[in-house]
Design brief:
- It is a single chain.
- This protein is of the alpha+beta class.
- The protein has a single domain, classed as YgaC/TfoX-N like chaperone (Yope Regulator, Chain: A).
- β2 and β3 form a beta hairpin.
Amino acid sequence: MKMPKPTEADKQYFTELVAKHPEVELKPMFGNLGAFVNGNMVAGLFGSVVGLRVNEVDRAALEAEPGSGPFGPEERPMKDYVAIPAAWRTEPATTTDWVQGAVAHTAAMPPKKKKAKPKKKAG
């Protein structure tokens, strides 16, 4: 599977989408970016595509928007995420509302527990 690479403009756009939420932590992921709340991913950047984790009701509404669709690799899209329409880059108010909902939904989830690092073998 070939991973698409975002442009600097894509990264800037994504960063600005989540910058209004101090609880969100940005992390690099496979050459792209992920936004996390309490260790749970709320949004991701996959090439130039932005995906949001939304609740079931919002997911149905977002999937009905023209230009939205599955998020992630075509052969294995991410289950709880929906790609927002690319046209929304020129509609910041619409995107802001959806990001706000995604952050609220993800913040309500239990914090992700960090996996214990395996112990080194004595040698």
